[in-house]
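ok new one. same drill as before - C-alpha cells go in, u give me an amino acid for every spot. 257 of them this time. try not to just spam alanines like last time pls lmao
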C-alpha cells in the first residue's frame, strides 16, 4: 500500500501542474487572445489544414489511454467504476479525433504552433487520466450506484450531447457555396453564444464528479479556464459583427453568464 501511494504521488503532482497550466492559460488567452480560426493572422506562421490539425492534435488523448489500458494491471481493469470512467474519457476522444475532424466543412487552417501545443497537452492529459484510472484509482464495487457517480455520469452524457449537437448547428450554418459568418440559431445557442463550449465544460465537470479525483478535477478546471476567455471573445465579436445579434444571450452559462 505504501509503495502504491508513493508511486501515485507523481500523478498528483502532474494534476497540480495541470491546475497551474489552467491558470496560466486563462491569463494568456485573456491578454493575448485565441490564436486560431477567425482570430489567426498571417504572422502566426505555418498552418495546418483544419481537418488534419484536429485529428492529429486530439489523437494522443485516444492513443495514450488505449496504450495505458493495454499494459495496465488486470486488477484495476476488472473494477466496473474504473472501466466505465475510462470508457467515458475514451468515448469523447473517439468522437473528437476520429469523427469530428472529418465532419468539418471548410474550416480555417490552424497555426502549426497551436496544433503542436494542443498535441502535447492531449498526450499529457491523456496519460494523467488513463494512468490514474488504469493503475491507481481504487473504488468500491458499488461506486457506480453512488449519487456522485450517477449525477456525474448524467452530466457527462448531457454535456457530450450538447457539444455534439452544437457543433452540428455550427457546421450547418452555411449552405453549399456560401461564405462568411452567420448567427447560430437553435439548441442552446438561443441562450448562450458558445453552446458548444458550455457542453464541453458540463461534460468534464460531470466526469470529474463521477471520478471524484484530483486528476478529473484538474481536467475540468483546465477546460473551464481555457474555454472561458475564448467564449468571452466570441461573444464580443458577435456583438460587434451583427447589429441584430440577440442581446439577451449570455456568454457561456444559460441565464447566468
Amino acid at each position: 500500500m505504501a509503495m502504491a501511494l508513493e508511486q501515485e504521488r507523481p500523478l498528483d503532482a502532474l494534476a497540480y501542474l495541470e491546475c497551474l497550466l489552467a491558470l496560466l492559460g486563462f491569463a494568456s488567452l485573456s491578454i493575448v487572445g485565441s490564436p486560431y480560426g477567425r482570430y489567426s493572422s498571417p504572422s502566426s506562421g505555418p498552418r495546418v489544414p483544419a481537418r488534419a490539425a484536429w485529428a492529429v492534435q486530439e489523437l494522443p488523448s485516444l492513443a495514450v489511454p488505449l496504450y495505458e489500458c493495454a499494459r495496465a494491471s488486470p486488477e484495476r481493469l476488472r473494477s466496473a467504476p474504473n472501466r466505465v470512467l475510462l470508457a467515458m474519457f475514451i468515448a469523447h476522444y473517439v468522437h473528437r479525433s476520429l469523427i469530428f475532424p472529418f465532419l468539418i466543412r471548410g474550416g480555417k487552417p490552424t497555426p502549426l504552433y497551436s496544433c503542436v501545443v494542443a498535441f502535447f497537452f492531449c498526450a499529457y492529459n491523456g496519460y494523467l487520466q488513463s494512468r490514474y484510472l488504469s493503475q491507481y484509482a481504487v473504488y468500491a464495487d458499488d461506486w457506480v450506484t453512488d449519487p456522485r457517480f450517477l449525477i456525474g455520469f448524467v452530466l457527462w452524457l448531457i454535456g457530450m450531447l450538447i457539444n455534439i449537437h452544437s457543433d452540428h448547428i455550427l457546421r450547418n450554418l452555411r449552405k453549399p457555396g456560401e461564405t462568411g459568418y452567420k448567427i447560430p440559431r437553435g439548441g442552446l445557442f438561443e441562450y448562450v453564444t458558445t453552446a458548444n463550449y458550455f457542453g464541453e465544460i458540463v461534460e468534464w465537470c460531470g466526469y470529474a464528479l463521477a471520478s471524484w479525483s484530483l486528476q478529473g478535477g484538474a481536467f475540468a478546471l483546465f477546460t473551464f479556464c481555457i474555454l472561458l476567455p475564448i467564449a468571452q471573445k466570441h461573444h464580443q465579436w458577435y456583438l460587434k459583427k451583427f447589429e441584430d445579434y440577440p442581446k439577451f444571450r449570455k456568454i457561456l452559462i444559460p441565464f447566468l453568464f
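The first strand starts at residue 47 and ends at 48. and btw The mean pLDDT is 91.
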